[in-house]
User: Which sequence fits this backbone?
């Protein structure tokens, strides 16, 4: 098996610092103290790949797009080229993919988000080589990604056939202003595997009674800091509380007051109290509670909070299980198991976090 690996080194950097993406915002993310996310995700995938299939012939692109990460994982990669500068671009990603195809790669394994997926799909257009994503971006709407880095390694080493899947992307400036309009960018060949994520579904059903019940509980909780996640379901809770919340950001609320609107990870940690509760809703169709669209809710934040999941019945009908991908495998394991999801003013439904 010959696998070409390319890493977008800045994918996901804008998430924890509240930028909701990194397209055109790399310098601002760095100024806010953002740390790269993609290299660690790539290391997890490649290390698991080395354990599962050490005989894999790995093709790589020069640093910072994967060569050293491949060596750290135990491979001796064939490095086919390198970006011209440290500030990598979409053209660098597509040049890497072109080189992998010319070198007879059986699969292109990329690490990034939806923008990277679109670049890889464009480079593969008209060719028979499949692609598979290691999720590292903030907005991961496409269905070409594995659920986790480790799942990507499993899929890469076990697949026997491929299927057509959608590459979606959104306009990040619209996303930052609260508008979500996913656009189909390509249809790509992807390995058939159990642990691939679905495309995001936006239908949710009615949430009025649910929002009223959650808001009543929040008002009655004196001294508790509520970390209100993104999404329309939690947005309905914010509306019920009468606050001008960030529709796609994280807002902090305590004792009738908004402490921080559209908070970063650092701001969340600085404003937590003795008792804290995260209110989140899963992504429709995908089931992710943590790890897609809310990286501000980092492992450090989650560990200091109780977690309450809310969703309409209609949304849960599209989700067989809930999922988490927090960047901390130990925390993911702790979160696995059955949990109550609030679906009405008082009603709950048991769902498994898988």
Assistant:
């Amino acid at each position: 098996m010959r696998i070409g690996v390319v890493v977008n080194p800045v994918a996901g950097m804008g998430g924890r610092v509240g930028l909701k993406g990194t397209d055109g915002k790399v310098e601002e993310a760095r100024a806010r103290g953002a740390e790269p996310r993609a290299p660690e995700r790539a290391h997890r995938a490649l290390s698991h790949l080395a354990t599962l299939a050490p005989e894999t012939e790995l093709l790589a692109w020069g640093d910072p797009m994967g060569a050293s990460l491949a060596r750290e994982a135990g491979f001796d990669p064939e490095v086919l080229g390198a970006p011209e500068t440290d500030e990598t671009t979409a053209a660098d990603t597509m040049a890497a993919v072109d080189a992998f195809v010319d070198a007879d790669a059986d699969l292109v394994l990329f690490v990034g988000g939806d923008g990277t997926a679109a670049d890889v799909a464009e480079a593969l257009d008209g060719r028979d080589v499949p692609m598979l994503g290691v999720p590292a971006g903030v907005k991961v709407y496409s269905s070409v990604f594995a659920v986790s880095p480790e799942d990507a390694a499993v899929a890469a080493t076990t697949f026997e056939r491929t299927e057509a899947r959608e590459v979606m992307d959104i306009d990040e400036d619209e996303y930052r202003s609260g508008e979500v309009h996913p656009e189909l960018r390509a249809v790509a060949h992807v390995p058939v595997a159990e642990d691939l994520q679905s495309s995001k579904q936006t239908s949710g059903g009615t949430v009025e009674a649910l929002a009223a019940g959650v808001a009543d509980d929040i008002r009655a909780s004196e001294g508790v800091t509520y970390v209100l996640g993104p999404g329309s379901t939690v947005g309905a809770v914010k509306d019920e509380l009468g606050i001008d919340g960030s529709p796609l950001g994280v807002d902090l609320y305590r004792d009738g007051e908004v402490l921080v609107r559209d908070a970063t990870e650092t701001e969340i940690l600085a404003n937590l109290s003795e008792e804290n509760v995260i209110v989140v809703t899963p992504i429709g169709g995908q089931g992710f509670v943590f790890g897609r669209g809310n990286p501000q809710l980092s492992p450090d934040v989650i560990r200091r909070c109780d977690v309450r999941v809310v969703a309409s019945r209609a949304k849960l009908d599209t989700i067989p299980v809930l999922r988490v991908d927090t960047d901390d495998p130990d925390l993911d394991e702790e979160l696995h198991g059955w949990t109550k999801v609030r679906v009405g003013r008082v009603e709950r439904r048991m769902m498994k976090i898988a």
Summary: The two ends are 29 Å apart (CA to CA). The CA atoms of residues 58 and 75 lie 7 Å apart. The mean pLDDT is 89. The first helix runs from residue 26 to 31.
